[in-house]
Design brief:
The complex is a heterodimer of chains A (95) and B (574). Chain A is α+β, with helices and mostly antiparallel strands and 95 residues long. Helix content of chain A is 34%, strand content 28%. In chain B, the strands form 5 sheets. Chain B has a 9-stranded mixed sheet with strand order 5-4-7-8-3-9-10-11-12, with helices on both faces. In chain B, strands 17-16-18-19-15-20-21-22-23 form a 9-stranded mixed sheet, with helices on both faces. Chain B has a two-stranded antiparallel ribbon with strand order 1-2. Classes of the chains: A alpha+beta (95), B alpha/beta (574). β5 of chain A pairs parallel with β6 of chain B, so a sheet runs across the interface.
């Protein structure tokens, strides 16, 4: 499930989740809330379910879920957890 | 894929690790479909242990997954290659998967998370490979991510459950070091695991030794001692001394010692696959005697492994040239191999493993060890004893003749020769001694024991000449066995004694003749004396007769004739 809000996004993110695991559901909700409130239409968020694609987990070294990788703006940053700490996430996104 | 599981009635199914010696202690292997914990300090070989298990399994057709939380995957592959394990080759065959699971140290943590990523990777990979063997190296690194003791504990439960429910045989390594207080922090792992193996490395008397101990094995018996182990260039090896039974074979045929004379003393030579001890002080010719055997054995197309703790290969080869023993052709033909090192260079386990590796690869017919007295320098007398017993056992099991040299400190102390309490293992004992007689040192040889052969128990004198060792015939004179110049002196003395005795007999004989002659002379003198006396007596008798006759005449002349001369009394009464 891929969502593209803009054809020329300045913010590119990947969120690795594990099916319907509560932590993962929380993380999806949390990140959307943050992104939509600050940079609506200027980001591209890719959500990867590692339960159906373990190779992606291998490729990105995803040992724990949920795990967010901020690809752009560089440098790449990783945040693990439910992303409940909004301030921490915002800082990582430099918002 | 053949079923490797060892199942006995009422016992736990086990999977052999195929790590040398370990399956003996584990009485079959690690528990199947269960979790085994390997704990130990840094550098004691936990990772090697785990990789070796997977590698050996993969070689037999059992796929395995190795998850490393600490090292990079290519570093793991490279390290394995130094042990001669080509992991990449097995990965290509889909029998092995090395997964680098490094956690990004810069990763931020925001909220709760689970190990679903890891599980998903393992499950997906395991399914695609049909794999049931998994190693997590090291679990403490993974758990530390939570930085919360209770959480670590509960996540480990999840992990353990997850593996058990999927019937996966897993090995998890964990660092334990009393210095870092980790031992208590991860103690809960030991409680939950089904089998716990503890590796330990300690330094004693400047020499590092490694020990392995099984601390727990649910539902199974196991060797409870601490066993020495080594990490050689072929992986981990454990040599459980108490487990190595005496599976010895009977002694073989006699083989020549390289010296005909010695062969005859020994009753035919050394016995194949026996243990020969040559003891003596330095310079007595132990090495020469051993090399005499080596040269002959090599010329018979037999191979010899020389384990030297005293001299280098070059030194031995050069030194042997002076007694006329040329080892160079044998080395060239690969009939002789030297394995020289200083006893202090490594622990006894490593020495042993090196020897074992050379034995299994080179397959020698005979082995020479120079000298067992040096083995004590590997650590202690106990270490030396263990080293020798295990080496001898190994040789006996493999039909290898063992020639042990032992340096004694006293020249003629035959009680000292047994060396390291291994005398019961020795089949033939040769003692080389030196005796001082008449201001010079002479070499003496005594065969103390020659199991299974009748041997001469006399002391022999021997010389080290430019043609090797030369034994002289036994000289038994008045003062026992004699040697060297004293022997020659004694021989000379004996012959002069003989002459003296002959001379004395002649002298006596002459004396007797003289006495005889004197007796004759004396006899003659006596006779003449007797004759003289006789003549005098005759003269006196004549005189007497003449006197009597004169008296008769006078009586007749006086007219009185008396018949009875007693009548002289009557005559008086007249």
């Amino acid at each position: 499930m891929t969502q593209a809000q803009n054809s020329d996004p300045k913010y590119r993110l990947k969120l690795f989740i594990a099916g319907n695991e509560p932590n993962s559901v929380q993380a999806i909700n949390n990140i959307r809330k943050i992104l939509d409130s600050r940079i609506k239409d200027r980001y591209k968020l890719e959500i990867v379910d590692i339960l159906s694609d373990f190779q992606a987990a291998i490729n990105h070294g995803v040992l724990v879920t949920p795990m967010l990788i901020i690809v752009e703006p560089s440098p790449e940053t990783t945040i693990v957890g439910t992303l409940s700490d909004t301030e921490k996430v915002k800082t990582a996104l430099r918002l | 894929m053949k079923n490797e599981t060892i199942t006995e009635k009422g016992t736990l199914p086990k999977i052999p690790t195929r790590i040398a010696g370990l399956d003996d202690i584990l009485q079959g292997g690690i528990p199947e479909k269960r979790t085994t914990i390997i704990s130990g300090g840094p550098g004691c070989g936990k990772s090697i242990f785990a990789i070796e298990f997977l590698y050996n399994g993969a070689k037999m057709g059992h796929p395995g997954i190795y998850v490393t939380f600490e090292e990079r995957a290519d570093a793991v592959r490279q390290n394995a290659l130094t042990m001669g394990w080509d992991l990449e080759e097995l990965e290509k065959q889909n029998l092995l998967f090395v997964m680098q699971a490094n956690l990004d140290p810069g990763a931020l943590i925001s909220g709760d998370f689970s190990l679903m990523g890891l599980f998903s990777i393992i499950e997906g990979k395991a399914k695609s490979m049909n794999c049931t063997r998994i190693v997590l190296d090291a679990i403490d690194i993974l758990l530390r991510m939570y930085n919360d003791f209770n959480r670590e504990r509960s996540e480990y439960y999840v992990l353990h459950d997850w593996f058990s429910s999927r019937k996966i045989t897993s090995i998890m390594t964990v660092k334990s070091s009393h210095d870092h207080g980790l031992a208590t922090r991860y103690e809960f792992l030991d409680f939950m695991a089904d089998c716990v193996i503890h590796l330990d490395q300690r330094v004693k008397e400047q020499i590092s030794t490694r020990r392995i101990r099984i601390t727990k094995f649910r539902g199974s018996d196991f060797g409870r001692n601490e066993y020495p182990y080594v990490i050689s260039d072929k992986g981990l090896s454990i040599i459980p001394i108490s487990m190595s039974g005496l599976r010895h074979k009977p002694l073989g045929e006699p083989v020549s010692s390289g010296n005909e004379h010695l062969d005859s003393i020994l009753g035919g030579g050394y016995r194949k696959a026996s243990c020969i001890l040559i003891a003596g002080i330095t310079g007595a010719g132990k090495t020469t005697l051993a090399n005499t055997f080596i040269e002959t054995a090599c010329s018979r197309d037999e191979s010899v492994l020389f384990i030297g703790f005293e001299e280098s290969e070059e030194a031995i080869v050069t030194n042997m040239l002076s007694p006329g023993i040329d080892l160079r052709p044998a080395i060239k033909l690969k009939k002789l191999r030297f394995l020289t090192s200083l006893p202090e260079a490594m622990g006894s386990e490593e020495h042993l493993m090196r020897a074992f590796n050379h034995i299994s690869e080179y397959k020698p017919d005979h082995l020479v060890l120079d000298a067992i007295s040096a083995c004590e320098r590997m650590g202690s007398q106990q270490t030396a004893f263990e080293y020798l017993i295990r080496l001898l056992n190994h040789c006996k099991e493999n039909d290898i003749t063992c020639i042990l040299l032992n340096q004694t400190t006293k020249s003629m102390d035959i009680h000292q020769i047994s060396g390291m309490e291994i005398s019961s293992m020795v089949d033939t004992a040769i003692f080389l001694g030196m005796v001082e007689v008449g201001g010079e040192i002479n070499r003496m040889m005594l065969v103390l024991k020659s199991r299974g052969l009748s041997h001469s128990n006399q002391f022999r004198e021997y010389l080290i000449t430019d043609k090797g060792i030369e034994l002289l015939d036994v000289y038994v004179g008045e003062g026992g066995v004699l040697t060297g110049a004293a022997r020659q002196e004694q021989e000379a003395k004996e012959s002069s004694n003989q002459r003296m005795r002959e001379h004395r007999i002649m002298q006596k004989r002459q004396e007797l003749n003289h006495k005889e002659a004197a007796k004759q002379a004396k006899l003659a003198a006596m006779q003449s004396e007797i004759d003289m006396f006789k003549a005098e007596l005759d003269a006196l008798m004549e005189e007497e007769n003449i006197w009597h006759q004169g008296r008769k005449i006078r009586a007749r002349l006086r007219g009185k004739f008396k018949d009875n001369p007693i009548n002289t009394n009557i005559l008086g009464s007249v």
